[in-house]
């Protein structure tokens, strides 16, 4: 395991320039490539399944549980909003919780439309008159790093719980690569829509590190938010009549979430289904796994964003002046 981790790190360091080129290409062509790749992958997966079996499972699903499963996702969003408020208060910026709720849910369609965490940067525009965008982008960057670290930690604990030493080694390898990325790839983020620097995130992290109570609160909220996502998946599995061990979800679902953030699809559609079929392949019932994954994509990428579209357009109209101000200061958005 140690040898494979060392080899991965050496490969990553030796190919940093190529990785940057691929990253910038995906950023410039993210919508066309992402939408096309995700849809083709989803069609390919569905095409290799028995559609009649999938339809029968959907018709016989427990719709009460499916309806109840929506609430853990809502709670996960609420916990993310509370974490956001903690970060803003850390910098001395007090914004009403009701306003943060409106902004977060108004921005939800953009977070699903754009790959990875780039859609979250639009939150900066909505409050740019109150919170300096340098600090705010640093907050979003730290949020992303915390999410990745917490997800990898949960996956590592889950791997140990299910007795998968190979899985635990793989998770540690990814975590080690993440450390290398943070140390050696400062230039990767230089051409994002709103230019941010690692020193902005460093400033936020320094403030966070000073206050142990605030830091603990942020970690707790992050853990609880992602636990709600795991609970959602567990309930959906039960709704489709498949009892999955919570430890299996603890191991697999963080990997599914991280995999769906790779910027080669819109909202993780296609990737999510493929990764879940691989990780839950031992269940020997791929049609159920695909149904669960498709329902996950429906709730996350279609249902909630559609419900939030009126808020999105309302906030977009109100934020035109803020957008113009950021464009004037930074040159491009």
Walk me through the structure.
This protein is mostly helical. Helix content is 78%, strand content 0%. The chain is built from 16 helices and no strands. It has helices spanning 2-14, 16-28, 30-47, 51-59, 63-68, 70-90, 97-113, 122-126, 133-161, 165-184, 198-210, 212-239, 246-260, 271-279, 286-318, 320-330. The longest helix has 33 residues, at 286-318. The radius of gyration is 20 Å and the shape is globular. The N and C termini lie far apart (43 Å).
Gist?
This protein is mainly alpha-helical and 333 residues long. The longest helix has 33 residues, at 286-318. It is globular and about 55 Å long.
How would you describe this structure in keywords?
16 helices; 78% helix; mainly alpha; 333 residues; globular; disordered C terminus
- How many helical elements? 16
Radius of gyration: 20 Å
Look at the structure and give the mean pLDDT.
Answer: 76
Main sheet attributes: strand count, strand direction, barrel closure: none
Order of helices and strands: HHHHHHHHHHHHHHHH
Provide the helix percentage.
Answer: over 70%
Lay out the secondary structure.
Layout: H1 2-14, H2 16-28, H3 30-47, H4 51-59, H5 63-68, H6 70-90, H7 97-113, H8 122-126, H9 133-161, H10 165-184, H11 198-210, H12 212-239, H13 246-260, H14 271-279, H15 286-318, H16 320-330
Helix pairs in contact: 1-10, 2-3, 4-15, 6-7, 6-12, 7-15, 9-10, 9-11, 9-12, 9-13, 12-13, 13-14, 14-15
